[in-house]
Amino acid sequence: MPDFELEDNIGKLCVGIDEAGRGPWAGPVAAGAVVILDRNLNPELLAGLDDSKKLSSKKREKLYNLLSDEEKSGKVSVGIGLASAQEIDELNILQATFLAMKRAVENLKVKPELALVDGNQKPKNLPCNVQTVVKGDGKSMSIAAASIAAKVYRDRLMTALAEKYPYYGFEKNAGYGTALHIQGLKEHGATPEHRFSYRPVREITEERKNVES
Known about the structure:
alpha/beta; 5-stranded mixed β-sheet; 9 helices
């Protein structure tokens, strides 16, 4: 379970950063940035924070709402950053993820001195020093909070996109390559939200063009 040991050892104003949505075939990649300014938080939030992938959708939603409440009270600062499907295609997914992280930090109401970034790849474009933390969302409270912020924000965004593009199951698969998503691509083609640099999207798109021609 995550705790504040990393933050305490550093002794500076830290921001936890994590991403959601590197693997999907559609939609933006999202990054969450969270600075915990006051640790006197809702006990349910403190007890529940963890790697978002280990939590149910219902649990993540509950924690996200609690996090939002604490932000309103000034105890935490939350920043969300996105990089679009077009930016992913132009830059590649890693660089687009770093761009989303930069935007997330820029959207904070405070200026952190150090970023704790989940994983082992260090973004070079952040406005502060960076320390990577492998499996950080299970070690650092700040990163765990960022993990949940990024995941829930992106899931809600994909649910909204499902209303605009109803054939791909975005509300269920968040843009990942499920059978329903593949069926939607084959029958209706790709949308502007699809990542054409991803091979399955590109191949299905080319197959449709060949059939139509």
